[in-house]
Amino acid sequence: MELIRNTIEWVATDTMGFIAAIFPYLLVGLVGLWLLWLLLGYLRVSQVGLADRQPAGPVVALPAPSADATTAELPNSPRGVPYCAFDGLEYPAGARFCLACERDLSLDCTNCGATLTAGDASCYRCGTHTGAADSLHG
57 and 122: one domain? Predict the structure, then answer.
């Protein structure tokens, strides 16, 4: 009985009272940080995958536009090849993000020429399979 009484008196002191008042806030803060860590981890995995992968081949500049081009657009890249429309760089198959500006890469459909995001599994216009989903899992 004496041990229980001494323990209760020790907890009732000012120092332990302060710790007991702060403990729930510390616990909520730690749980909040843990949940934020889980959320950021989920978003990273869902957006870029588990491992940071470098492109399988070299990054090259897109060919210059022909002399008879009347518009100031970027030159056309070969169909089915990911490219950055902002930087004018062509990436190997399977790349999804530009290494220079970190934007999503574009991809022209091999069948109809529609401009797609490099991560799209199929063309929104004609339904042609792009192969992007295969390169992510393999």
Answer: yes
Backbone angles phi, psi at 104, to 5 degrees: -65, 140
Are both 108 and 129 inside the same structural domain? yes
What is d(CA 104, CA 92) in angstroms, rounded to the nearest whole number?
A: 14
Neighbours of 34 (CB within 10 A): 10
CA distance linking residue 14 with residue 36, whole number of Å: 33
How wide is the angle at C-alpha 134 spanned by C-alphas 133 and 138, nearest 5°? 120
* Beta carbons of 88 and 82 less than 8 angstroms apart: no
- Which positions ≥6 away from 87 have C-beta within 8 Å? 98, 100, 101
Token pair for 83: 């490219």
60-107 pLDDT, tens digit per residue, is 776 666 555 554 455 556 788 888 888 888 888 888 888 888 788 888
DSSP letter for 68, please.
T
Shared domain for 25 and 83, answered yes or no, is: no
Residue 79 and residue 22 in one domain: no
